[in-house]
Write a structure and sequence with these properties.
This protein has 366 residues and is mostly helical. The two termini are 34 Å apart. 72% of the residues lie in helices and 0% in strands.
Length: 366
């Protein structure tokens, strides 16, 4: 799906790792008989924690993990305060995240969240950082349903305490939008994106960031076949790019391609031809006249020329398309077949059955 491809390209517009600071106020060391008797020792737990914290600060992660695990083992003993276990689980999860051990990090975050919910309550604002960190891990692991559930809870929580344009709230809405796209909930993703866009527009920001947001919105419209909305949004993006002096970027070319295709879908082939020719001219200067990358523009130019009944013009584009495909080292039978079919269709609509027959026969496997 087009939106999925573009989205991944920006994703990296895309999902930001949110630093998670899970620990709450340190629990008070409990007085006990200590490790020698097999009971929880608050003193030993605190010593392991402090050692692990110091090692983590100087990036000695493996050693820090060893001491966090010792602290965690201490919290498993009789008489331990669950708050201490919550502290250590959160810190260990955060460390494993830094080490790239995401599956283990998820497990410990989940255990930490379960303890904190019992300790603080299901809707406590103090759960914010744990929910954020665990949701981020679910996103990385593509566990969309789990991420969806946590992000909705986080949005509800932040809506009750933050301003509508607060960056933390907008980031959570963006993450939820990402999940909705992955789950095929494109209409909801559109609503979430519009909400973010409207809030962002209330503060000064660069034209390039506005253009990026407009492009994402346009892709959401296109994936739902909302051609009029997509056309309007793509034109807004195009105006911003041209005003900023952009005359040849990849993003500009992609905008022209999308806009041309959109206008073709709206039954406006003449408008589409103007836009697509402009994009083709830019691409030719950058790629050369025989590059297979030109097919991105030439193929829709064939279709729009036929749609506009500009048959002589369509013939030039269709033959050029076939020549580029046949000369490409990476050509496939499907690509060749589509180029031949385009010429057959052209001549049939043009009222030239003999030429159409030539390409129809080439399509028949021998």
């Amino acid at each position: 799906m087009r939106i999925r491809t573009f989205w991944q390209g920006w994703s990296v517009l895309a999902i930001l790792l949110v630093a998670a600071s899970i620990s709450s106020s340190p629990c008070q060391p409990l007085q006990s008989a200590g490790s020698a008797t097999g009971a929880f020792s608050g003193k030993d737990w605190m010593a392991y924690e402090q050692k692990a914290n110091k090692l983590e600060k100087i990036n000695r992660f493996d050693e820090a993990e060893e001491y966090y695990r010792k602290a965690l083992a201490e919290t498993r003993k009789p008489g331990a305060d669950p708050a201490c276990s919550g502290d250590t689980l959160g810190e260990l999860a955060s460390l494993l995240r830094k080490k790239g051990q995401h599956s283990q990090a998820i497990s410990y975050y989940e255990q930490c969240l379960a303890i904190r919910r019992k300790q603080w309550g299901e809707r406590s604002q103090r759960l914010d950082s744990i929910l954020e960190a665990l949701a981020s891990e679910y996103l990385l692991d593509r566990r969309w349903a789990d991420a969806d559930k946590l992000l909705r809870a986080l949005v509800e929580m932040r809506e009750s305490t933050l301003l509508p344009n607060d960056p933390k709230l907008l980031k959570t809405l963006y993450d939820l939008e990402t999940v909705c796209v992955a789950e095929g909930k494109v209409a909801e993703a559109e609503r979430l994106h519009l909400r973010q866009f409207q809030e962002k527009q209330k503060s000064p920001r660069s034209s390039q960031l506005v253009a990026i947001d407009l492009r994402i919105l346009a892709e959401l419209y296109l994936s739902q076949r909302k051609w009029n909305d997509a056309e309007k949004t793509l034109k807004q993006e195009l105006a911003i790019r041209l005003d900023s002096g952009d005359t040849s970027s990849t993003l500009l070319q992609d905008n022209l391609l999308r806009l041309g295709q959109c206008e073709g879908q709206l039954g406006q082939p003449e408008k589409a031809l103007v836009v697509l020719k402009r994009g083709l001219a830019i691409s030719e200067k950058q790629q050369g006249e025989k590059s297979s990358k030109l097919l991105n523009f030439i193929a829709p130019l064939c279709n729009c020329s036929i749609q506009a009944k500009r048959y002589a013009e369509a013939e030039v584009y269709c033959k050029r398309r076939l020549a580029i495909v046949e000369s490409s080292s990476g050509k496939t039978a499907v690509q060749v077949g589509r180029a031949l079919k385009a010429l057959q269709d052209l001549y049939e609509q043009w009222g030239k059955p003999e030429q159409a027959k030539i390409y129809r026969e080439k399509l028949v496997p021998r």
